[in-house]
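Person: Please comment on this record:
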Amino acid sequence: AAINKKRKFIADGVFFAELNSFLAKELAEQGYSGVEVRVTPTRTEIIIRATKTQDVLGDKGRRIRELTSVVQKRFNFPENTVELYAEKVASRGLSAIAQAESLRYKLIEGLAVRRACYAVMRFAMESGAKGVEVIVSGKLRGARAKAMKFVDGFMVHSGQPSIDFIDYATRNVLMKQGMIGIKVKIMLPAENGKRGKMPLPDNVTILEPKEEATPAAFPVAVPVATL
């Protein structure tokens, strides 16, 4: 049945949100870092980005086949029209999702909040990030809930650059004392922007002045004295 444009956009958004939520839960331990959906006339390709791609594929591709089957049944795709692929994240330190998951596991293992946050920030900055912001909130120590904010480097908070250069992720950790919230923001370098390599709008490049070619001297006609 024909579907109007407005409904199609909403349906696509709901599909992406549900798929992302399912994969985030299912592949948390495999370093899930996002998903991309490519629709072609014959089939739908779903590219899963993760840090441990071998674990996503499973033994002889068994895990990815299981995930394909679940996605196909849940979203009513016809047989052999949906394909799942695993893609390795180029730089784990520049992925906010990967770092939020890393921090989550550090806190579950019982590492001190301050130490865990500084470790995540150091790793991101060493990977080439321009800036990092980590916020951990909840019952960190004692009965009263509070928020701790850790910042390093340069961070943009408004305008188009905040869309193009900021990678953002939130996670929840259920601890013995209650629920802890994690927010990670990473400022990507200019060459790793979400829309490819592009400079920040306030970046000014001063070009070297070109050397001007000196004009060739024209021969001057000397008047001949007449007798």
The chain has a mean pLDDT of 85. The two ends are 106 Å apart (CA to CA).
